[in-house]
Amino acid sequence: MHNEDTQNKDNIFSAPIDKIGDFTFDERVAEVFPDMIQRSVPGYSNIISAIGMLAQRFAKPHSNIYDLGCSLGAATLSMRRNIDQEGCHIIAVDNSSAMVERCKLHVNAYRAETPVSVVEADIRDIEIENASVVVLNFTLQFLSPDDRRTLLEKIYQGLKPGGILILSEKFVFEDEGAHELLIDLHHDFKRANGYSELEISQKRSAIENVMRPDSINAHKQRFKEIGFSSYEVWFQCFNFGSMFAVK
């Protein structure tokens, strides 16, 4: 409980905003991000825990582990706690200087066996090499559709055989009735976590220009075309979920 009490509360969208701009991961968002993500993304803490478990299973000795779009480093820290192979190096990348600054503080808060490099860069510019685990935790959906494929192909090339990509995303659904129901359930989830109608609608307006999610089938089709040998949804709660793809 102590942790929750000390978290900065997300009230970014609580007052009427005349002209809602696109959502950006700026200083204001970085400050309230843990609260925002817990109250906005169903199952987030389960996903973070399981990323650590998957990393423990798939990390190979003397390989690189990438957390692309690492924000404050939740997935990075979960992996670092769980990896027990020697010679692994975690590379955590984000293009928001506010996020990177805070991520470094979290990573440096205590010492650990597995070294972590926190890099401020565009994930599209990062070289992926000698990788056994790559994480895209709610990151791919912010790239343009063409960039998504290019990045996934680059990840595939940089993964060692048997390496894993963990991809968490918001999903769209082909069945319109199902899609609307899952969106409504997500909004109920946010209401239950204390967000007002105003906050929900303003956040939706701010994010819809910067985030265009794919369907599960579109993800699977792309994994297949790129050459991954095995891929599946391993977690889903409403219209949010996480998939793995193994080379």
UniProtKB/TrEMBL annotation:
Organism: Vibrio hippocampi
Alphabetical keyword list: S-adenosyl-L-methionine, Transferase
Subunit structure: Homodimer.
EC number(s) recorded for this UniProt protein: 2.1.3.-
Cited InterPro entries: CmoA (IPR005271), Methyltransf_25 (IPR041698), SAM-dependent_MTases_sf (IPR029063)
Reactions catalysed according to its record: prephenate + S-adenosyl-L-methionine = carboxy-S-adenosyl-L-methionine + 3-phenylpyruvate + H2O
NCBIfam families: carboxy-S-adenosyl-L-methionine synthase CmoA, PRK15451.1
Protein name, UniProt field: Carboxy-S-adenosyl-L-methionine synthase
Binding site for S-adenosyl-L-methionine: 44, 69-71, 94-95, 122-123, 137, 204
